[in-house]
Each structure stands twice: as C-alpha cells, then as structure tokens.
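ok so i was messing around last nite and threw this chain in just to see what happens. nothing serious, just curious
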Amino acid sequence: MKRTGLLLLSAVAAFGCQRDDAPLTKQVEDLKKGQDKILAAIEKMPKGGAAAARPQRPRRPSPDANSVYSVNIAGSPYKGAKDAKVTIVEAFEFA
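result:
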C-alpha cells in the first residue's frame, strides 16, 4: 500500500513539475523590446544629461563672516554666565 501511494505521489509530482516555457519566453522577449526602446530614448537625449539642460538655481546669500549680528535671546534657555563677552547662538528648525 505504501509503495502504491509513493508511486502515485511520484507520478503526480513529476507531472506537476512539467511546465510550458512559452509564456516565460514571450515575457523575456517583451522585456528585451522594452529595454531596446529605453536605450534608444537615452541615445536621443542631449549629451550631458538632464542637469545640463536645466538652468542653475541662484544661490542663497550666505552671512558675511566679517560682520557682527545681533540676536535677541531674552527669555531663551542658556548655559554659562549672563554677562559673557561672547554668546554663541545655535538655531535650528524642526520641519
């Protein structure tokens, strides 16, 4: 009885493992055609990429390192002496 069941199970497994590769082959061919279209579109693009075609955005002005800036820190938390000659302000925005 065990041999018959094992033989039947082997036959079902062997029959179930057979597959038709035609749909898979068609999918691979479709992918190759799509890849060829993408490569042709890339060849038509201007040399230098998309960044070369786009104008440069103006730079944000940076603070002058030789200037002294005044920042109101009244009521803000601090470390150190109240009458310090130099105050370093660290500011950041949680976005």
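not much to say yet. The radius of gyration is 36 Å.
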